[in-house]
Amino acid sequence: MPRTQKKGAIVAGFLAPHPPHLVYGENPPQNEPRSQCGWEQLRWAYERARKSLDALKPDVLLVHSPHWITQQGHHFLGVPKLSGKSVDPIFPNIFRYTFELNVDVALAEACCAEGAKQGLYTKLMRNPHFRVDYGTITTLHMIRPQWDIPVVGLSANNSPYYLSTEEGLEEMDRLGRATRTAIEKLGRRAVLLASNTLCHWHFHEEPALPEDMSQEHPQSLSGYQWDMRMIDLLRQGHTKEVFRLLPQFIDEAFAEVKSGAFTWMFAAMGYPEIPAELHGYGTVIGTGNAVMEWNLERAGLSKLASKTRAARRAIKQAA
Ligand SMILES: [Fe+2]
User: Fold this and answer.
1) Ligand 1 midpoint to CA 41 (Å)
2) Contact between 145 and 49 (Cβ < 8 Å)
């Protein structure tokens, strides 16, 4: 069981993209295909993020992946142990990964219940033979290759793709607030992982040797410029402006943040206006990927919402 504390808190959030190429470039024993090298800037960015995560000593990692698609509602991994082989359907040549992970089922159940209270359709995934998607696996491997911290996996309902972007992201805002409430109630020290690429314009053919870095560059100049604009705003802590621009960014850069993880994470963190730490940026088959960190504990924000609520309760009782 994870260690617990009196009142739970989100201690940090990471933008933690999932191109399987990063696992392929690293050559861990769990992945079958072997590479010579590749995508070092992003892999070394993850190495820096790993150090931060290690220092935070979280009880649980929560990850929202665009590649576990559940069109009927928001689902949560709800089996204590899951294992198997995860294969990327688009890049089976580079990602065939044997995984084994532990789920914080109590927290998954709490997230599911709190999401339902927010008016969302939510469901626990109870199939013990479930094959976890490559997005979840890649993000978790890259941030914590030891696999020694329990996880909660959240599916992508993808509502922004069949509702309007704004309506869909409003659902993700509710899911984020529900996630925070569940974490606080269960007393977990939690880290959130938004498994999203930024600009998602990509090449349609890969080089004969996938890790041929002489072929790797941004697919689109305007997409790259959008990424730099958003990263710069995030590095300055201009969160409100980022969310004002988000629908336009999504439309013009085909940004994968449309699938909701980024909004879910920020809603859970309370949209902090704190400077993000950029661990690194790089392209993968032309898409833009940033590894970024919002360390709420270091910023003194991980307990803020709880304190605010306690203060409100005290005022009510005094009135
Ligand atoms: Fe993706």
Assistant:
1) 19
2) no
18 C-alpha to ligand 1 centroid (Å): 6
Ligand 1 centre and the CA of 69: distance in Å?
11
CA of 135 to the centre of ligand 1 (A): 7
pLDDT in tens, 229-269: 999 999 999 999 999 999 999 999 999 999 999 999 999 99
Give the C-alpha separation, 87 to 130, whole Å.
13
Do 277 and 291 meet the contact criterion of CB atoms below 8 Å apart?
A: no
Contact by Cβ (8 Å): 33, 24? yes
Domain boundaries, the chain: 9-318
Q: Report the C-alpha gap between 28 and 37 in whole angstroms.
A: 12
Task: Determine the distance separating the centroid of ligand 1 and the alpha carbon of 101, expressed in angstroms.
Answer: 21
Under CATH, which number does the domain 9-318 receive? Answer: 3.40.830.10
pLDDT tens for each residue of 7-54:
899 999 999 999 999 999 999 999 999 999 999 999 999 999 999 999
| Low-confidence residues of the chain: pLDDT under 70 | 1-6, 303-319
Q: How far is the CA of 259 from the centre of ligand 1 (A)?
A: 9
